[in-house]
Amino acid sequence: MKDRGLAWEVTRDTTRRAVLASVLAAGSAGLAASDAADRLDSFAPLSGKAWDAADRSLPETVESPHGAATVARDEFGVPQIEADEEPAAYFAVGYCQAFDRLFAMDLQRRVMRGRLSEVIGEATLGGDEFNVAMGFADAAAATWEVVAETRAGPLVEAFADGVNAAMDDLPLPLEFELIGYEPEPWTPVDSMLMEKQISWTLTGDFAELRRALVADHLGAKRAETLFPTRYDHDDAILDGTETRLGGSAESVRGAGERATTGAPNGSVDPVDPSLTDWLSGFESPTGVGSNSWVVSGEHTASGTPILAYDPHLSLQAPPLWYEQSVDTPERSVRGATFSGVPFVIAGANDRGAWSFTNLGADVLDCYQYDIDDAGDRYRYDGEWRPFEVDEREPIPVAGGEDRELRVRRTVHGPLIEREDQTVGVAWTGHTATRTTVAIEAYGRSEGLDDVLEATRDFDLPTQNLVYADADGRTLYFATGRLPIRRTDGEVVDGDRIFDGSAGEGEWRGFEPFGESSWEGFVPFEEKPHAIDPDVLSTANQRPIDDPTHYIGVDYATPYRGARIAAGLDEAVDGGETDGGNADGPTAPGFHRALQRDVRDGRAPELVPEIVTAVRDRDGLGPSLVDAADALDGWDYRMRRDSRAALLFARYLPHFRERVFGPAFADADLGEGYYPSDWTLARLPDDDPLFDGRSRSALAVRALRDALDEVEAEGWETYGDYNTTRAMSHPLGGEAPFLNYAELPADGSPATVMNYRVESAVGSSWRMVVRPGTDATAVLPGGNSGDYFSEHYDDQLRRWLENDQRPMPLGAGGEPAVRFEPGGSQ
After folding, report:
1. What family is this (predicted)?
2. Model confidence pLDDT, tens digit, residues 521-576
3. Alpha-carbon distance values, 817 to 64, 70, 322, 758, 772 (Å)
4. Residue of 343, 363, 367 lying closest to 354 (CA atoms)
5. Is 245 in contact with 530 (CB distance < 8 Å)?
6. Counting beta carbons within 10 angstroms of the beta carbon of residue 519, is it exposed (0 to 12), middle (13 to 18) or buried (19 or more)?
7. Is 20 left (phi over 0), alpha (psi -120 to 50) or beta?
8. Rounded Cα distance, 48 and 622, in Å
9. What is the distance between the alpha carbons of residues 42 and 116, in angstroms, rounded to a whole number?
């Protein structure tokens, strides 16, 4: 019988080489998918060197100055690294990451250093100016000064040595030939910069600037109605009575300093709308969040806790996450990390498993200052003083004139300037942070006590840590440093713009671009946490209803959180859930099924009014009636083969526009300022937004808009619209062959199986772990970033079905690479 798998691989390899051959023949013009390739002029003419990238492979032996190690590769290309000495293992980790993901690593460090225009051109200049002004590279350097002196330091250095050895030994990936440059050596500071990049993605938020504009343009009372600082629901992560450190099961509400001072919109005027909108463009994509949950052994078939996790981050080719396994006498750990980060961030070792979802904490504040006419001094603490930093930074620009950016910093942090408008920024990531130390320690932890101790060093990002171990222990802890703001000695919330010159919103113990004491931040024991929770889930909703200290206000709507909690509650009570069999104790299969749940909680709130609005009107025509009938018979699941799911998905943006568009346009606020779907579903018929218009009439018009769009696009089912087209390569617009195949997908922004086709955000890694027993996982694409590798996209279809494959610990099979002692550091 013919080996179909081998035949497919041969065909696939031949096809990819044929694609490269056609592109080489066409030259730079062959890269363009359309005339809209606005960065095409930065692409280098292709040469025969591109064939070197097609033949990249790992050598059988590599000299390592850090000692012997071996690397096996499993059937999905995951490196399984074994060594007797930890530096030898992490040299091999660096070598493997560079082989698989070198372009992604270099791209991210260029972005964060503000040096992308050096190879791309003027199209990326705005981003470079922001990143240089924010000083991420200086914050990374300050972090490395601290980390270098810890146990993690030598391992980070060994990792960097491994990356550089791979650069020296191997042909560069194809993308470097496409753009026409060579990467610089990797440094430990670059790995710290990746920590800053991750942290910024999860906590970089200028929401207070937008809140101030909304309050100014719509009125404070109206703004509070449309943008409540607390959604009205009962699905917080904690109920306030969990067992805490010290064994107490009592709530600690009222024990801390809870802010009550000052109006939410602050004491200063809003920042200019153009600057606010520009800064908002450097925040995370809409929808960044995650799901995680844990059930104790009381509710599992095996008697061992089960942890499930899927972080919702940007989806792209290759994926953000990189899977690796490291086995040494000190640790046996496997899981996911980010390219350029040596240690497993979310995963499992032989004793436990850990995961992180975004806490939604407010760890960034904005300040306005009195600045003198010359722009050389600012007023602070009753006097005029020079800026703490005031210098010119060059920004190289490929194919254009280099730029020079004035970089100024105050006692709080960077001063961002755009078209003569300024705002000061304080962000907890601007100081030296020890998160790398914590992550390294998780990998060799032996139980809950070790994880708790390591978490004390987890300075940023603020996350919901969920943990379980083979001893049956479970844990929830809010990680990261939480500022306590003070104005005139009084504690205030951070949901406002502060008068920096007047000393409002001070963070005691914070040293930007240095080492902070953190003395004025929320004490570790007073952060939200739970010791040995029985059943607990997180989905970016608020952590607790009445926190001891101010945490933040920008939490996710509770649709995912409520759905997960309901599924778990029904399962542990011995019932049957929609997500899979839950007859009695739960097993890993139940949790994977719950991860695949696609019921959209917005639909039961909004669909009945559409159906009623259509049926209450005569003479609307058969297409509207048929659409209402389809929606009426729908089970609210966002499946790719569903016509009703398609209609609902396209109805929502049209209904938002019908409801919010006129009033927000009159207030000079774009669609980026529209309230959430949670708010939309709860607007009463007499809300001023309707201004004499009928809500039901707007629903009918929005449904007609959706039908017109669906017909114009030729969509039949949800999967025609909701595809993987959003999961593109960074160069995919100019070199479309690098993108993943376009396939129909399930899920929506509000479903547990999360997918946002418009913003390319969704489940970026999934895993289910029984600590000390077994684990499964899947990536949205493949572990390799090499277009010619069989592992470039070999998990994409598995990811669409949540068909997870085993994630075993320990050494792999026959080594593919042997690292032998030799060479120099």
Report:
1. Belongs to the peptidase S45 family.
2. 999 999 999 999 999 999 999 999 999 999 999 999 999 999 999 999 999 987 54
3. 12, 6, 19, 41, 28
4. 343
5. no
6. exposed
7. alpha
8. 60
9. 11
Residue 586 to residue 298: CA distance in whole angstroms: 9
- Please check the confidence at residue 44 and state whether its pLDDT lies above 80: no
Given a cut of 60, whether residue 264 has pLDDT beyond it is no
CA distance 132 to 119: 16
- pLDDT tens-place string over residues 281-339: 999 877 778 999 999 999 998 999 999 999 999 999 999 999 999 999 999 999 999 99
**Which letter does DSSP use for residue 45 in this model?**
P
Is the separation of the CB atoms in 132 and 389 below 8 Å? Answer: no
In angstroms, rounded to a whole number, what is the distance separating the alpha carbons of residues 655 and 648? 10
Cβ distance 81 to 813 under 8 Å? Answer: no
Rounded to two decimals, the pTM is 0.93
When pLDDT is cut at 50, 70 and 90, the band that residue 809 belongs to is: confident
Distance, CA of 390 to CA of 410 (rounded, Å) = 9
CB atoms within 10 A of CB 304: 19
Confidence category of residue 719, pLDDT binned at 50, 70, 90: very high
DSSP 522: P
Task: Give the Cα separation of 41 and 43 in Å (integer).
Answer: 6
What HEC string does 250-307 produce?
Answer: CCCCCCCCCCCECCCCCCCCCCCHHHHHHHHCCCCCCCCEEEEEEECHHHECCCCCEE
CB 411: neighbour CB atoms within 10 A?
A: 19
Angstrom distances, CA of residue 622 to CA of 629, 680, 696, 704, 710: 10, 28, 18, 11, 15
Q: Locate the domains of the chain by residue range.
A: 603-635+641-721
Buried b (16+ CB within 10 A) or exposed e, 123-147: bbbebbbbbbbbbbbbbbbbbbebb
* Helix (H) and strand (E) counts in the chain: 23, 30
- How far apart, in whole angstroms, are the C-alpha atoms of residue 722 and residue 710? 12
For the chain, the average pLDDT equals 91
Q: Is the pLDDT of residue 784 over 80?
A: yes
Q: Which two tokens stand for residue 56?
A: 């990249």
Amino acid at 171: P
Question: In sequence order, which residues have a C-beta less than 8 Å from that of residue 644 and are 6 or more positions away?
Answer: 630, 631, 633, 634
Res 824 pLDDT > 80: no
Cα separation of 652 and 646, whole Å? 10
Q: What is the dihedral of CA 361, 746, 737, 339, to 10 degrees?
A: 30
Can you read off the two tokens belonging to residue 726? 């959003």
Q: How far is CA 607 from CA 503, 544, 739, in A?
A: 50, 30, 35
Report the C-alpha gap between 498 and 488 in whole angstroms: 12
At 797, list the tokens: 């279809």
Q: Residue holding tokens 């919010």?
A: 660
Residues paired with 408 in a beta bridge: 390, 415
d(CA 202, CA 210): 18
